Amino acid sequence: MTKKKVLFVATVDSHIELFHLPFLKMFKEHGYEVHVATDTDKPIKYCDKKICLPIRRSPFRLSNFKAIRQLRKVMFDEGYEIVHCHTPMGGVVARMAGKKARKNGTRMIYTAHGFHFYKGAPAHYWLMFYPVEKYLAKYTDTLITINNEDFERAKRKFGKRCADIQYVPGVGVDPKKFEKKMSAKAKSKLRAELGLSDDDKVLICVGRLDKNKNQGFLIKAMRELLEKDDKYRLLLVGPDELDGKYQKLAKDLGVSKEVLFLGFRKDIPELMQISDVAVSASKREGLPVNLIEAGMAGLPIVALDCRGVRDVCEMVGGRNASVLRLNDGIGFTNVLEHIQKGDNRIDMSCYRNNVVGDAMDKIYGRKRRVLHVLASDRFSGAENVACMIIRNLSDEFDMAYCSPRGPIEGKLKEMGIKYFGLEKLSRRNLKRVIEAFNPDIIHAHDFRASVIVASWFQNQGMIISHIHQDNPKIKSFSVWAILYKYISLKICKIIWVSEDALKNYYFSHFVEQKSIVLQNVVDVNYIKTKATEYNIGEEYDVLFLGRLVALKNPKRALHIISLVKERKDDVRMAIVGEGEESTRLREYVLKNGLEKNVKMLGFQENPYPVLNNSKLLIITSEREGVPMAVFEAQALGKPVIGVKIDGLNKIIKDNENGYLSNNDRELSNRILQLLDNDNYGVLLDSLQSSFIRLNNENKFYCRIIELYNRGRG
Length: 713
Hints:
CATH architecture of the largest domain: 3-Layer(aba) Sandwich
Number of strands: 26
Radius of gyration: 30 Å
Number of helices: 30
Largest sheet: 7 strands, parallel
Helix content: 40-55%
Shape: globular
Distance between the termini: 13 Å
CATH topology of the largest domain: Rossmann fold
Low-confidence stretches: none
Strand order of the largest sheet: 3-2-1-4-5-6-7
CATH class of the largest domain: Alpha Beta
Mean pLDDT: 89
């Protein structure tokens, strides 16, 4: 069982460390292997593998081309499920490197933390950055924007190239940082440490010192403010990226004593509490975290008008925020003279980390979209196969059927299948459907549909060609055989209905590497070999195998085991997996005295030895599509105890290969009966014939799930 992998890409470590650690942690809890690629090999928290790229912020550095080549190879070797790229050059490098990876099933997500082309941006910004972003949009599966101006522009300009454009309000800010209030004594002490008196009027600006953040404007404004009131002080908090330019400016203007350059600080919440007003003079912002934090701290805000700042200040609203046109120095000082420190914290709930986290979780966890394309308008063999895939895997994937209109429509309506009807199967008609549905995967059935899809839509994502017959057109050297050889270069995987269908294709040797034959879905010998790869040294009565998340409901499995223990004190259970429920499960084990009965083994690269040394598998999921663990258990001759859900109802037959019930007490009784050697032996005798039946019915779905999820199959 291979662990899913996710890759985060950014130009520098600090971007990941400041904004994305909660998401790295979230993926870890969901059982992913987390990789990060930046310009260093410095370790990062929650990161399993760090990749050092010669990536630079400047688009004119040749080393960025080397970074693209290096990252392309990494993506090919690792087979990521998701690549999430950030920062302008991080987004360019990752998406250029990921063209082929997308065809193999990798989902490419890019968060634009503020486009360089914005209303009022210099013309050369538009000439340089807009064409690049427009070009790369077609290699982006999901484009995330963090302010309204960028969101609306992305929908207008890139909607036809990237249909999945999302708005997420920033990267999330933890409001708990601003809940603890300092005492008057503590405030006075911190002010004194900084050389401030209790009656000083303190302005604070948090952000790196650079041209875009425009702190020079604030330093110039300080001279005018001090002429009106010598109690004004300005705190500039952030690393200096201009080699002392602003310090020199403050000295030249005679305000070096009143402007405090504090550098990088970790006590931002405390500095906010000793300040009276938050100020910003940025020329452009994606979404200013410093102003969001100021709002959460209850500070009034005075800022120059720019994209991103408007979003935050509209949320703050009223007397708590003033947005002035760029370079309005007079207005800036006038507002500061009359503004009053806020006495209430401002409701900025839309920017809280839990709200942003929920939005990102939906984006990360959305079902893959699969579009099945067929050339026929009638219901027959290939059409039946496509419909079975859609019906049986609809819990796992968002799927739709696309074909010319005809008698097939009634059948699809009867089965409740999402349908896109065409006047005829052509590039133009299919393009409209693809723009509307935005599939991650196009599953083209038989020759004609495969040719049209692969010829025109190779940039859409993963393409699977499914040949349902031993096609006579491509058996000999012919234009059809040559045409299929050509389009096969643009196809991720080819499914053949039989070994003969593959072998009889004239250029079979050319496509062999990317071909599979459907009948070889469940490799029993492989599972049995892996099951004896190492000796775990322990035996278990019951095994729970899967991610430890609410959907899998592992706590219910523990409850059932606690009921079994009432009558069998020495019952032994193993839990293989990890996830967000791990801590709660350990607490449940301790609270219910199950320490001697339950062993949590965490994630296992190869769980088959544990499964092989267990007497039965338990599944308590709230819902399932087609659980692979069932077939793995059956291959090793293990019965399954589970709840009655659609995914299990189709494959588990009582007294044949397991038992199903929605009553926990009944399930515990069934486990006790099974653990009786006589009853267990009777059930094992029926498992072999049951597994053959299940394999014949479900091997198709198992392999399709693998293809859709992994691409390489």
